[in-house]
């Protein structure tokens, strides 16, 4: 019997008991839809977390907190370490910063508090620093301010309760509305001496404003000052980085910090693929590092376990549905005993008979899997659209923006089809083998 004839024979037989066939396919479709929807929750949450992680961090950024030493601690990074980092293959830039204290900055009649930072500007530019206005500092008294620096400026003479609104933002009428570029700024540096606070005012000029961060949640009020300003601060305070002395131990000598020591060092790779090789090189030389790749590795391992567990649970539903397929195929063998007897009488090969029944069980499984997949996609769409509305209305909570409750990648339906097909073949195997053993004489008498 040709394969085309076998398919035609299977289709004709499946039409004889449409109700039983429909219920079997329905059970299979429900089990496949359950598997896909259940597993899609794991895929959806995984995708949401990966997306949020990538948005919160630059994918080519590697943070290096220090270097491990034999005693078990960490040594702070210096110019020697920076030189080593810059020689690593595929390193685009190495930014290094020295953090000062938060100081009062006065612009005309407005003031704000912001952290001062000393940075290597060529490295910052190579890492992607961009300006919204102005230029980079060129002289010792020129500074670069963060994009949100102006938003924190408030009138110095006004009462704080009158300046801020209910959300804690400065009211529109009190905002600084002039152009910052070229403005003179007074940086007030404090120190403690004999229990009294003394102030040194440094006159600086704003020459540039950093570009607005691409992520809305990133806040940038930093003030980038020069090494000259740092030296003046340290000369006045008598402490490294302008640290305030402990008022309870004024005679205690402050901790000595070398001039080439950095508080914050980041390495930027040429591309995402280079990050792993760079981190491996760093670890081999006792430099612990942190990057998005490290974080994603842990996230991927965790969610791989979760998704495998959900797929396993969904497979149990398909195994339950396979009982219906087994019952349907067993009844089919019983009902078609005369047909099987005739096929054997005219010389049909037992392998052909077995193949016909396996084709029928495959039909049931694949049709059920196709319908289940379509239903699963529909449910996934409804869940992603409707569940946030339900949560908002029922609990009064706003779900995180961009959270995906269900995601069905192409691999998930493929996995479901493979599992379903494998299970249906196993379900139809025993009845198919039974069909090959039907006695011709008994079959002709309509008995199995």
Automatic annotation (TrEMBL):
<dbReference type="InterPro" id="IPR025857">
    <property type="entry name" value="MacB_PCD"/>
</dbReference>
<dbReference type="GO" id="GO:0005886">
    <property type="term" value="C:plasma membrane"/>
</dbReference>
<dbReference type="InterPro" id="IPR003838">
    <property type="entry name" value="ABC3_permease_C"/>
</dbReference>
<dbReference type="Pfam" id="PF02687">
    <property type="entry name" value="FtsX"/>
</dbReference>
<dbReference type="InterPro" id="IPR050250">
    <property type="entry name" value="Macrolide_Exporter_MacB"/>
</dbReference>
<feature type="transmembrane region" description="Helical">
    <location>
        <begin position="21"/>
        <end position="45"/>
    </location>
</feature>
<comment type="similarity">
    <text>Belongs to the ABC-4 integral membrane protein family.</text>
</comment>
<keyword id="KW-1133">Transmembrane helix</keyword>
<dbReference type="GO" id="GO:0022857">
    <property type="term" value="F:transmembrane transporter activity"/>
</dbReference>
<feature type="transmembrane region" description="Helical">
    <location>
        <begin position="410"/>
        <end position="429"/>
    </location>
</feature>
<feature type="transmembrane region" description="Helical">
    <location>
        <begin position="301"/>
        <end position="326"/>
    </location>
</feature>
<protein>
    <submittedName>
        <fullName>FtsX-like permease family protein</fullName>
    </submittedName>
</protein>
<feature type="domain" description="MacB-like periplasmic core">
    <location>
        <begin position="22"/>
        <end position="283"/>
    </location>
</feature>
<feature type="transmembrane region" description="Helical">
    <location>
        <begin position="363"/>
        <end position="390"/>
    </location>
</feature>
<feature type="domain" description="ABC3 transporter permease C-terminal">
    <location>
        <begin position="311"/>
        <end position="437"/>
    </location>
</feature>
<dbReference type="Pfam" id="PF12704">
    <property type="entry name" value="MacB_PCD"/>
</dbReference>
<keyword id="KW-0472">Membrane</keyword>
<keyword id="KW-0812">Transmembrane</keyword>
<keyword id="KW-1003">Cell membrane</keyword>
């Amino acid at each position: 019997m040709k394969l085309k004839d076998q398919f035609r024979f299977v289709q004709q037989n499946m039409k004889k008991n449409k109700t039983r066939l429909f219920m079997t396919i329905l059970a299979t479709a429900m089990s496949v839809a359950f598997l896909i929807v259940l597993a899609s929750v794991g895929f959806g949450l995984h995708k949401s977390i990966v997306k949020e992680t990538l948005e919160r961090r630059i994918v080519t950024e590697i943070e290096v907190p220090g270097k491990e030493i034999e005693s078990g601690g960490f040594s702070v990074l210096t110019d020697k370490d920076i030189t080593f980092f810059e020689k690593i293959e595929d390193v685009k830039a190495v930014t290094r910063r020295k953090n000062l204290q938060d100081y009062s900055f006065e612009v005309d009649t407005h003031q704000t508090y912001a952290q001062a930072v000393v940075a290597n500007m060529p490295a910052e530019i190579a890492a992607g620093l961009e300006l919204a206005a102005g230029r980079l500092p060129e002289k010792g008294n020129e500074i670069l301010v963060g994009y949100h620096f102006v938003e924190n400026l408030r009138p110095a003479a006004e009462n704080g309760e009158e300046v801020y609104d209910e959300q804690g933002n400065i009211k529109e009428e009190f905002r600084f509305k002039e152009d910052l570029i070229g403005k003179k700024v007074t940086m007030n540096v404090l120190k403690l001496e004999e229990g009294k606070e003394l102030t040194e005012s440094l006159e600086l000029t704003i020459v540039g404003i950093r570009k607005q961060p691409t992520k809305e949640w990133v806040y940038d009020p930093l003030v980038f000052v020069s090494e000259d300003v740092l030296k003046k601060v340290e000369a006045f305070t008598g402490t490294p980085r302008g640290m305030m002395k402990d008022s309870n131990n004024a005679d205690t000598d402050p901790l000595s910090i070398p001039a080439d020591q950095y508080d914050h060092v980041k390495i930027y790779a040429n591309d995402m693929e280079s990050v792993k090789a760079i981190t491996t090189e760093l670890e081999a030389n006792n430099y612990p590092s942190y990057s998005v790749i490290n974080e994603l590795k842990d996230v991927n391992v965790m969610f791989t376990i979760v998704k495998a567990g959900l797929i396993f649970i969904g497979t149990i539903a398909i195994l339950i549905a396979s009982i219906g397929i087994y019952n349907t195929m067993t009844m089919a063998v019983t009902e078609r005993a005369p047909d099987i007897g005739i096929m054997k009488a005219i010389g049909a090969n037992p392998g052909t008979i077995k193949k016909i029944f396996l084709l029928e069980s495959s039909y049931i499984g694949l049709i059920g899997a196709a319908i289940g997949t379509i239903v699963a996609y529909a449910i996934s769409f409804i869940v992603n659209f409707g569940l946030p509305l339900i949560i908002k209305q029922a609990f009064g909570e706003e779900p995180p923006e961009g959270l995906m409750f269900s995601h069905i990648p192409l691999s998930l339906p493929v996995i479901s089809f493979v599992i379903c097909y494998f299970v249906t073949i196993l379900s139809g195997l025993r009845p198919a083998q039974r069909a090959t053993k039907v006695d011709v004489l008994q079959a002709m008498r309509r008995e199995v």
